UniProtKB/TrEMBL annotation:
InterPro entries: Mopterin_OxRdtase_4Fe-4S_dom. One of its GO terms (molecular function) is formate dehydrogenase (NAD+) activity. It is an enzyme of class 1 (oxidoreductase). It comes from Actinomadura algeriensis. This is Formate dehydrogenase major subunit.
Length: 188
């Protein structure tokens, strides 16, 4: 490569010689970048979604190929985020495809040091038994002569990854069980 070709290959030189001083056009593209294809080119479909991390509700475009999520990007049509995602939202592909995602129930017994795998039905029965027992032992009909009909035996702390409808149903469930300590992290 001659000196002239070498200088012509510099993006900054091309910006000013091609009349593109802001570097937004072809002058900043390299030969390597011109050969690249977007990761989303092979997607069969794009599904509109909402980021599950916080209560902001940034829009996401979820790219799907062969029934599997291949990429998640900000939705430029979203009036909330206008195509932008925070670092957590940008990494939300790991929620679906990450190697650290668990697809089984793990349980560590009280005072135990090891995790053991449980069947989902067994784990759900354990949770139900503990809720019933905590409700039975912590139930209060009255306090200071006032009828309260509540339990302080358990509480609910919801997460911002749930949408309004899910949070509404959880609130109804815990209220029906007599819990009064119900909060959501999205409000904090």
């Amino acid at each position: 490569m001659g000196v002239r070709q070498w200088i012509d290959s510099w993006p900054v030189y091309r910006q000013f010689s091609d009349g593109d001083p802001l570097g937004r056009g072809a002058s900043v593209k390299s030969g390597t970048s011109a050969k690249l294809n977007p990761r989303v080119n092979t997607a069969e479909k794009v599904v509109k979604s909402v980021c599950p991390y916080c209560a902001v509700g940034c829009g996401q475009d979820v790219y799907v190929q062969d029934g599997k999520v291949t990429q998640i990007e900000g939705d430029p049509d979203s009036p909330v985020s206008r195509g932008r995602l925070c670092p957590k939202g940008s990494a939300s592909l790991q929620l679906t495809t990450g190697s650290a995602r668990e697809h089984r129930v793990l349980y560590r017994r009280p005072h135990g040091t090891e995790w053991e795998e449980l069947e989902l039905d067994v784990a759900m029965d354990m949770i139900a038994d503990r809720v019933i027992e905590a409700r039975r032992h912590g139930w209060q009909w009255e306090q200071n002569g006032l009828r309260v009909r509540r339990t302080l035996g358990f509480a609910s702390l919801g997460g911002a990854t749930l949408d309004n409808e899910e949070n509404y149903l959880i609130k109804k469930l815990f209220t029906a069980l007599g819990a009064v300590q119900i909060e959501n992290q999205a409000r904090v």
